[in-house]
Design goal:
It contains three helices and eleven strands; from the N terminus they run βαββαβββββββαβ. With about 190 residues, it is mainly beta.
């Protein structure tokens, strides 16, 4: 049974915060002072400038999801709960998509958590995939509508980001609208 789609959009080859030479030095509280990991995932860098791209959905290396104005309008028309749209001062084409809909991943031996920081209480490296069975706690039927982020961020160092899980009905609508950047979506099966 398909419960949703892992959107996993293309990376736009930029960082929101992790490259101070390009994006400016982040204010206190955005990155961990001890390990450099990002700790504030809602902060939007006022100096961030997205690259020119034709995607309607893409992501930064450090886990921010950018959507076009057209996709933003479509999502707002769907009246999906839990979504917020953060303005980028340097771009009229993109906004930052954030979601308070969090899916808790069942932690198993299929995931590797490495390089723990006792200051920010995060791991600097998280990787792996489930061996099968339930992937998300409490989810045993299809998610029809909505966009969800995983509670675990995957990757290494400054390149950590959540999974974006799109409900079955919402995904079908996005595909029908032919939004660019959706071609990497994979069904999540339980």
């Amino acid at each position: 049974m398909i419960i949703g789609y892992n959107a996993w959009p293309a990376e736009n080859k930029t960082y929101m915060w992790a490259d101070p030479k390009i994006q400016g030095t982040p204010p206190a509280g955005v990155l961990c002072d001890a390990c450099g990991q990002r700790i504030d995932y809602h902060a939007i860098n006022p100096h961030y400038k997205p690259p020119r791209t034709y995607y309607d959905l893409c992501r930064t290396y450090d886990g921010d999801f950018l959507i076009s104005a057209q996709l933003e309008d479509w999502l707002k028309a769907q009246t999906l709960s839990g979504l917020t749209f953060g303005t980028l001062k340097s771009s009229e084409r993109y906004v930052v998509l954030q979601s308070s809909n969090i899916l808790r991943i069942v932690r198993s031996v299929a995931y590797k958590f490495e390089e723990y920081c006792s200051v920010c209480q995060q791991h600097k490296s998280v990787w792996g995939s489930p061996a099968g069975g339930d992937r998300f706690q409490g989810i045993n039927e299809p998610l029809q509508r909505g966009i969800y982020f995983s509670d675990i961020r995957f990757g290494y160092g400054p390149q950590m980001g959540p999974l974006m899980v799109v409900g079955v009905e919402t995904w079908a609508g996005m595909v029908a609208q032919k939004f660019k950047g959706l071609n990497a979506g994979k069904p999540i099966i339980i």
